[in-house]
Amino acid sequence: MSFSSWKEDKAKTALIDDAQALADKLADAKPHFVESHAAAAWFWQAFHLADGQDLYGLSDWTPAARKRFASGAVTQIAALRKAREYDSSDGLAIWMHTARALAEPQMVPAVRQIWHHVQHAPLNADTMAQDLIEDAGLTYVPGRRVPDGFGIDD
Predict the structure, then answer these.
(1) Is the dihedral of CA 100, 102, 108, 111 positive or negative?
(2) Fewer CB within 10 A of the terminal residue: the chain, N end or C end?
(3) For 54-72, how does the pLDDT look when each residue is reduced to its tens digit (9 = 90+)?
(4) Could you say which DSSP state residue 140 is in?
(5) What are phi and psi of 113, to 5 degrees?
(6) Residues 6+ apart with CB under 8 A from 24
């Protein structure tokens, strides 16, 4: 194995491990933690939809567009974490993992687990999402969805 192949495999493993760590964190979390992550993920969908980007349809985006989204999300997540906006950054991280999983099929099982937890978040998550979205002047669309290809049955 060449050094570049080893380095690429190590980077791929890190991406898979990061997604699995979030899935595990949500599986073991208290209800309010799952609610806040779900609400933040739904907020980011509304935020991007206001700019004409439907994150639920990431699978329809070009690979280059998904890569740009994931790269921009990494930068934005770092800024949010620096500002101690952890729930918001974790909500965006859910979408970043989703975009990355479309290019790296080995991530899909972990990302499906993440979306399973988001979709089954306690009911207070809907109210939290509505408040976040409306406070930002965005349109709240009720209903829980999973991005195309990330349902447990997909």
Answers:
(1) positive
(2) N
(3) 999 999 999 999 999 999 9
(4) P
(5) -60, -45
(6) none
- The alpha carbons of the chain give a radius of gyration, in whole angstroms, of 15
CB of 48 closer than 8 Å to CB of 55: yes
Q: Indicate yes or no: pTM above 0.85.
A: yes
- For residues 29 and 24, what is the distance between their CA atoms, to the nearest angstrom? 8
* Residue, of 135 and 151, whose pLDDT is higher: 135
Dist. CA 152–CA 15, nearest whole Å: 20
What CA–CA distances, in Å, run from 9 to 1, 2, 3, 13, 110?
10, 11, 10, 6, 17
Tokens 């509304």 belong to which residue?
46
Length of the chain: 154
Q: List, in order, residues 6 or more apart from 121 with CB less than 8 Å away.
A: 31, 34, 35, 37, 38, 39
Rounded Cα distance, 46 and 72, in Å: 17
Query: Residue 125 corresponds to which tokens in the numbers above?
Result: 């998550």
pLDDT at 124: 94
Tokens, residue 70: 């994931």
